Each structure stands twice: as structure tokens, then as C-alpha cells.
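call fold(seq) -> C-alpha cells
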Amino acid sequence: MVVRYELEKLGLNNSAIKAGQVELLEPISIEQIDKLKTALSKAGLELTDNRKHILIEKIKAVVLEMLDYSGTALKTNFSYYLSKKLSLDYTYLANVFSEGQGITIEHYIISNKIRKVKELICYNELNLTEISWKLNYSSVAHLSTQFKKVTGVTPSRFKHIECNNPLRPSMCEL
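ret:
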């Protein structure tokens, strides 16, 4: 909404605004870019034209889309999905991401899968078997092992400590 408002204020027509990117219908002047950067900065947002940074943000958006908005379990592996979705070779994507973020795409995916597991555990709507299926784990044991490796506790211990503690409800969103 902020981006749409600022674009309208500058008289810039857009064809699409998605998380992380805007498609404009006409060319934009340097002055308009500077004004937009300033306005977005005041709102806590950043305008970038660095192609590698943009690609990294696209990779992140695809990962989050896969994990947060997938209604069914993913039936393909992440590297294939990312490569297909962004129309680029996975090795190139992995190199750009690692160079820019200091972690691998795999570690980024794992940390976000664990974030999603935490949410689902605390929502208490799915059991661990259903969660492992939904997030494309090969088994509950694999999910549990990865969860403990990342968080230091088992999923059941996490649920007992974090999700049932009224003093720390925000921990389930981490």
C-alpha cells in the first residue's frame, strides 16, 4: 500500500506490485527514482536496482511462497522448483545467494521450514506427521532431527515450553 501510494504521488503508473517488485508502464527519471527512494526509506523500505540483490530477494520470495502459501505438500525438490520458477540455473542461483547472504539457499530454506514448523506446532491444528508431509520432509524422524539440530529442542519439547507458555506467546512466530 505504501509503495502504491508513493508511486501515485509521483504520477507513476504501474502494471503490477508484488512483494519485492514493481512493474512500471513507462520509463522513470533519475529525479523520480531519487524521490521514490527517499519516500520509501522514510517508510522503512528500500529501492534497489542491483540485479544480484533483486535476484536474492526473488529467491527469498519464492522460498517463502513455497512454505507459506502452498496448500499441498510440494511434490518436487526445492532446487528444481526455484530453477523453474526463476528460469535460471540452480547453480547460478545458489552462488549468487551464498555470495550475497553469507549462507546457502539450503540453510535459508531449512531455517524457514523450521519457522513454519514452529508456527504449525503452535497452531495445534496438525500433528507432526501431517506437518512433515505438508513441508515435504521424508519422515517425522527427519523433521524432528532437523528441528532439534536448528533449535536445540525436540518438536514436542518446543510445544510444551513455547506454545503453552502464556508469558512467551511470540516465541512460536520465531
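The chain has nine helices and two strands.
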